[in-house]
Amino acid sequence: MTDHATRVIVLDVVGLQPDHVTEATAPNLTGVLEGVNALKPPFPALTVPVQTTLTTGQSPGEHGDVSSGEYDRETDEAAFWERDRADRHRLWETARTAGTTTGALFFQHLIGTDADIAVTPSPIEDEDNNLLEMDCWTNPDDLYETLRAEYGHFPLHRYWGPAADEHSSRWILDAASEAIDRVDPDLLWVYVPHLDYAGLRHGPGEELQAAVSTIDDCLGEFLDVLRASKRWNETVVNVVSEYGFHDVDTPVFPNRALRENGLLAVTDDGKGTAVDVPNSAAFAMVDHQVAHVYVDDRSPAVRRTLESLDGVETVLGKVGQAERNIDHPNTGDFVLVAEPDAWFQYYWWDDPEDAPPYATDMDIHAKPGFDPCELFGGTEGLVSLDPTKVGGSHGRSDVYGVYGLGGPMAPETSADGVVDARAVAPTITELLGITDSIPMSFSHPPVTECE
Question: Which architecture characterizes domain 7-245+396-437 according to CATH?
């Protein structure tokens, strides 16, 4: 037997917090893990920045994913969930240079990855973003046909939106079981989204605790598949969480404030208003408890306007951004950080009649900011325009996730207390014994001691 694992499974149970992993709440996780450490996410603690940090071992200031959206300064457009991964090579891509077989399921920006097995939603839509047919991009190409025949179409409406629940996570874990059966990669990353829904809807209370028990049951079924597989004795299971949740009750509207002060311009086509970014002094691309503000040469007026907003804890300029490892060309001229009980909504209107058509629709790519109101049904459309319904948020990086190791080949760790998110990628390469064989450099040491 080798002195390192030959198979590493990474379960990204987003929203899982250290106090969730108890025998009463999560018996299947506690049954496989040797212990759990708190995991400190990078700033900002948002989906894409954290995922890229976990899979590259770099901070957002290094890898450039500073939000789940991206603002293009040349076209004056903000787009969410559509960024090309470009030269951001994640561990399931770089590990293949060492002969490691890899897989990744439902992480962001997977289309085009060369992982040996991959699945990510890619629905077929018309020019108005209406769903024509559910589909997934997969590697190999025929994998979705197999998954659809066995488990039905991926339940996209249960993955996000008012009907989001555990059914999407269960389908993803079934796909992970298929990945084990079909390829059995040496490294398999699996994104498990269920806790995000309860955390955003209700905050870190009883509903989230109940959701932990629900997803633990789903994870237990997948862990049974692993235990029954031929390589179980060669396996380390990593359980990681991207962030925890704050209770929130204060939505903040930076674009509305900019408009009221003559710093943000809009157009109106009779169907609702739209931001006229080229003619605006500033525009805020919001993402939960963080907002990137892009400005012209009237930045002192912009800063004064933003600093006066209730719910804004701080406005980061370049010095503050460097202190938080987010200084990158993609970062806004200012970065807003919300108070613990506040979060940012992208709205620039007061009257619902002025809202653009996509505001009440499930249209995540059209909205120039993240919209948790999509988790609630609306009265004027599919989704709500009432931001007071949102009960939880994240992004400040001061509520920790978890990191735990388990399985037959799990080593003792040197971690004591809090694990830096940048330590996850180098820990996995140490577990697989490939650190010296891949073209990656890490700025943080691993948490393991492999002998």
Answer: 3-Layer(aba) Sandwich (3.40)
